[in-house]
């Protein structure tokens, strides 16, 4: 049994309230406590999704089997999942819709405009654990931020932080969906918060209708193999040629299902300085990004989520954007200047982009 510094049994209800207070102090916009027992519906959903092959090349999605839906198997001794969310929408960022409408600009998913969220949230979760440890002594815990086999939306839904939207992301009536999620697995028997009472998507299907590649194949069901975020971030090889024209000018991720979600009318700007726009990535041209050397890429994007894909895939993605851009001799010249790039992956996409540009110029 966990005991406080006086060796008396802990008041876990009071501790839960204190944890929520500490969470606010650490910059989390919401914190709730959910169960660690397996969810039968989550297990079935994960099994069906994997069986359909919707995870594509993300082998890690299948490698842990049902542990993703069984927190106590993933981290033995886990009794509760402390779920947190933190808003990421950068104040005063250039309008995403304007960027998407201009084929010469490069669209970067709004979550990636600032510092790498993995580092920010993991550090705050560690600080939260340290505050708990200072108050009650050693206890079992492990922090997760989108980097391990955790069904984060499921955990957040069961803790009552929101409901799963038809685009598969977590939604709230107060803040929409522009936020990050994280979890602190713990062996503390904290009182549970009530799960979300209901979902509020109703008959709306805007997220399905606006998805540029048709990746949301049915409500609450995403085929990652068609998702622009998967294609520009997770996929290591060539982007399927038939999907390249549909990607448009999205060079890192895609926000369309969120941009057109009615609940994001209530989205709130982030209070976190680390999520402010860096390197002008909210309003930059494809040509400018394509001109970066590998050293430029490393110096400017170190410490961001984008850095994780590496320079080669960065050029691959921008080449696709340039191929989809309006006909422009300057674009052709830039592509030709890199046509002999040492990477076969980059060369393939440059060749495709050049063919697209020449077709457009020919009328």
Automatic annotation (TrEMBL):
Keywords for the protein's UniProt record, in alphabetical order: 4Fe-4S, Cobalamin, Cobalt, Cytoplasm, Iron, Iron-sulfur, Metal-binding, Oxidoreductase, Queuosine biosynthesis, tRNA processing
Residue positions binding [4Fe-4S] cluster 2: 211, 227, 254, 257
Domain 4Fe-4S ferredoxin-type: 192-221
Location in the cell: Cytoplasm
Pathway(s) of this molecule: tRNA modification; tRNA-queuosine biosynthesis
InterPro entries xref list: 4Fe4S_Fe-S-bd, 4Fe4S_Fe_S_CS, QueG, QueG_DUF1730
Chief site of localization: cytoplasm
Active-site residues per Swiss-Prot or TrEMBL entry: 146 (proton donor)
Record: residues binding [4Fe-4S] cluster 1: 201, 204, 207, 261
PROSITE patterns, alphabetized: 4FE4S_FER_1 (PS00198), 4FE4S_FER_2 (PS51379)
Superkingdom, natural source: Bacteria
Amino-acid positions noted as binding cob(II)alamin in the UniProt annotation, renumbered to this chain: 68, 146, 170, 181, 229, 254-255
Molecular-function annotations in GO: epoxyqueuosine reductase activity
Complex and partners: Monomer.
Function recorded in the entry: Catalyzes the conversion of epoxyqueuosine (oQ) to queuosine (Q), which is a hypermodified base found in the wobble positions of tRNA(Asp), tRNA(Asn), tRNA(His) and tRNA(Tyr).
Family note: Belongs to the QueG family.
Name of this protein: Epoxyqueuosine reductase
Originating organism: Chitinimonas lacunae
């Amino acid at each position: 049994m966990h005991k406080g510094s006086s060796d008396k049994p802990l008041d876990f209800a009071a501790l839960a309230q204190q944890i929520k207070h500490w969470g606010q102090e650490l910059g989390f916009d919401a914190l709730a406590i959910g169960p660690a027992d397996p969810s039968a519906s989550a297990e079935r959903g994960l099994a069906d999704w994997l069986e359909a092959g919707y995870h594509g090349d993300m082998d890690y999605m299948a490698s842990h089997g049902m542990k993703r839906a069984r927190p106590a198997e993933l981290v033995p001794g886990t009794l509760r999942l402390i779920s947190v969310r933190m808003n990421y929408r950068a104040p005063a960022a250039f309008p995403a819709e304007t960027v998407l409408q201009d084929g010469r600009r490069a669209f970067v998913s709004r979550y990636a405009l600032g510092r790498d969220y993995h580092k920010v949230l993991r550090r705050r979760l560690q600080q939260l654990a340290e505050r708990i440890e200072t108050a009650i002594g050693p206890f079992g815990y492990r922090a997760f931020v989108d980097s391990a086999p955790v069904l984060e939306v499921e955990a957040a839904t069961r803790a009552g932080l929101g409901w799963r939207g038809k685009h598969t992301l977590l939604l709230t009536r107060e803040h929409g969906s522009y936020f990050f999620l994280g979890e602190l697995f713990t062996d503390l028997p904290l009182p549970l918060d009530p799960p979300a009472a209901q979902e509020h998507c109703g008959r709306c299907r805007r997220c399905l209708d606006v998805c540029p590649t048709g990746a949301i194949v049915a409500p609450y069901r995403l085929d990652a193999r068609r998702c622009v975020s998967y294609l520009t971030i997770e996929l290591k090889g060539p982007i399927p040629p038939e999907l390249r024209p549909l990607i448009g000018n999205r060079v890192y991720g895609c926000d369309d299902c969120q941009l057109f979600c009615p609940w994001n009318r209530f989205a709130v700007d982030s209070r976190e300085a680390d999520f402010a726009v860096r390197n002008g990535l909210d309003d930059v041209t494809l040509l400018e990004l394509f001109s970066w050397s590998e050293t430029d890429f490393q110096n400017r994007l170190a410490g961001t989520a984008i850095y994780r894909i590496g320079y080669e895939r960065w050029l691959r993605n921008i080449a696709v954007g340039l191929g989809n851009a309006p006909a422009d001799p300057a674009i052709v010249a830039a592509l030709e200047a890199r046509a002999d790039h040492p990477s076969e992956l980059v060369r393939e996409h440059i060749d495709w982009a050049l063919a697209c540009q020449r077709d457009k110029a020919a009328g």
